Amino acid sequence: MTSGVQQDITLQGVTKSFGAPGRQIEAVAPTDLVLQGGSMTALVGPSGCGKSTLLRLISGLEVPTRGQIRIGTETPDQLRRRAGLAVAFQDAALLPWRTVTGNVALGRSLAHRPRDRAAVAELIRLVGLSGFERHRPAELSGGMRQRAAIARALAGLPELLLLDEPFGAVDELTRDRLNTELPPLWEARGATAVLVTHSVTEAVRLSDRIIVLTPRPARVAADIAVTLARTRTAEVLASDAFRAICAQVSQALRLHQASEGIPAQ
Ligand SMILES: Nc1ncnc2c1ncn2[C@@H]1O[C@H](COP(=O)(O)OP(=O)(O)OP(=O)(O)O)[C@@H](O)[C@H]1O
């Protein structure tokens, strides 16, 4: 973090509708939320309920129809313009003409961080892309592109890290390793993080708090604190407490399942 201060994310009466007047789709119903600075919050909910929209609103890539969002005293747009936030979305969005190293290094330069080849190489190693440094996105699998995007997002040392299904295209074993090795990177620097995921286990594993959303329009259906030790060791993951929270989240999802929704895991 640049400021050393962990800023809360505050949503006040935030709504989002898409489409022309009279034919509007309401994606986010009026929402009030405070996400504590330095915490990791997971957003889960049925497919199409509005999770990504909520994340994009927090990122400043979408503007609320009504209400306001602040990160500390700043708007998302202000934070984004001074490169205080980073996003890693499902569809990676890497620059196709840049190598893996070039894309990750870009994450640093866009955030006005000094060049640091060792830091870039270490991030590439951590996301398991050593040996692919000189490859371009088209030469990588979908999962590898996602991992490069995560490395790029982390490279700028963001205060706010927004992750939309970052491990969606990653195989189970790699996902497991990333779920272990990446959280210390943002925790160590006290970044605030918001994660959208379809995996209940991943949500409980990574976050301090889980917001379960209703089918569209998204509203808060359940707000569940993950009362586990911050370091999610193998023992924590195998504990009854971990399973109990997973069951609580799954139950909240089932209660609010849309007909086209995902099965609770
Ligand atoms: N730019 C847009 N224009 C019009 N409609 C949109 C736009 N973005 C999202 N929507 C609609 O808003 C609703 C919520 O979409 P969103 O992508 O936020 O859901 P989600 O919960 O992230 O879905 P999934 O879990 O399937 O990724 C959907 O009905 C979607 O079609």
Annotation keywords:
single chain, 265 residues, alpha/beta, 3-stranded antiparallel sheet, 9 strands, 22% strand, globular
Write the layout of secondary structure elements.
Blueprint lengths: L8 E10 L6 E11 L4 E5 L6 H9 L6 E6 L4 H6 L3 E4 L11 H11 L6 H10 L15 H14 L4 E5 L7 H10 L1 H6 L3 E5 L3 H7 L2 E5 L6 E6 L8 H4 L2 H16 L10
Parallel strand pairs: 3-7, 3-8, 5-6, 6-7
Antiparallel strand pairs: 1-2, 1-4, 8-9
The chain binds adenosine-5'-triphosphate (ATP).
InterPro entries: AAA+_ATPase, ABC_transporter-like_ATP-bd, ABC_transporter-like_CS, ABC_transporter_ATP-bind, P-loop_NTPase
Organism: Pseudooceanicola spongiae
Family: Belongs to the ABC transporter superfamily.
Assembly form of the protein: single chain
Global mean pLDDT: 89
- Please trace the helix and strand order, writing H or E for each element: EEEHEHEHHHEHHEHEEHH
Return residue spans where pLDDT drops below 50 for at least 5 consecutive residues.
259-265
Helix content: 25-40%
Span between termini: 35 Å
What binds here, in terms of ligands, is: adenosine-5'-triphosphate
- Spatial strand sequence of the major β-sheet: 5-6-7-3-8-9
Structural class: alpha/beta
Number of strand elements: 9
User: How many helices?
Assistant: 10
Please tell me how large the radius of gyration is: 18 Å
Estimate the global geometry from the Cα principal axes: globular
Q: Roughly what fraction of the amino acids lie in strands?
A: 15-25%
Pfam families: ABC_tran
GO molecular function: ATP binding; ATP hydrolysis activity
Protein name: ATP-binding cassette domain-containing protein
Organism: Pseudooceanicola spongiae
